[in-house]
Amino acid sequence: MSEDRGAEAPGTGVFLCRMDVRWGDLDALGHVNNTVYFRYFEEARVHLYEAMEPDGGTGRVGVLVHASCDFLKPLLYPARIVVGLKLLRVGRTSLELDTWIAQADEPQDIHARGRNVLVFADGATGRPTPWTDADRQALARCFSV
Questions:
Q1: Distance in angstroms (rounded) separating the CA atoms of residues 110 and 91
Q2: pLDDT tens across 70-109, in order?
Q3: How much helix, strand and coil, in percent to the nearest 5, is found in the chain?
Q4: If I label 19, which of 60, 101, 104, 106 is the partner at 20 to 30 A Cα–Cα?
C-alpha cells in the first residue's frame, strides 16, 4: 500500500494520511471490503504513533480499546484515499479520535466515519500510563492544536 506518511493539516487539528486502495482490498462485489476500512484507520494510527514518537525507549504501547465505523458510501478500485484523525479528547491515559475516510481528490465526500479510543500502557504490565508533558507536546505538534 502506497502511503504519504502522516502529513498534518496545519492549524486544523487534523492528522491526515493518504494511501492507495489495493485491488486485494476488494470483496466479491467489487468494492472495498468493510474489514479493510479498519485497516486503513489502523495504518493512519501507526503513522500518528510514528509522528508522536510516544515510546522513546520507555516500553509503552498504544492499545485500541474502542473502534467503530459507519459505512456511508462504497470505495472502489482504483482510488487514492485520505484517512483523517481528529483529536476529540485527551484523558489521563487515553485519547479519543474522530476518524473518516474520503477519496483524496474529493476530501469533502466522506465514505466512512468512525471513532477510536486508545489507551497508552506499559508494554510489560499492560497497565495504563499517564500522558507526560512530552506526550502532550507531541500531540499538540501532530494535531496543530
A1: 27
A2: 999 999 999 999 999 999 999 999 999 999 999 999 999 9
A3: 25, 50, 30
A4: 60
Distance CA 70, CA 65 (A): 17
pLDDT score of 82: 97
The model's pLDDT over 108-142, given as tens digits with 9 standing for 90+, comes to 999 999 999 999 999 889 899 998 888 888 888 89
Does this model's pTM top 0.85? My answer is yes
**Where do the domains of the chain lie?**
3-139
Report pLDDT digits (tens) over 56-67. Answer: 556 788 899 999
Is the CATH number of domain 3-139 3.10.129.10? yes
Which residue type, as a one-letter code, is found at position 13? G
- Within its chain, how far is the Cα of 129 from the centroid? 21
Q: Extract the C-alpha cell encoding 37.
A: 476500512
For residue 50, what are the contacts with CB-CB under 8 A and spacing of at least 6? Answer: 5, 6
Q: Is 85 helix (H, G, I), strand (E, B) or coil?
A: strand
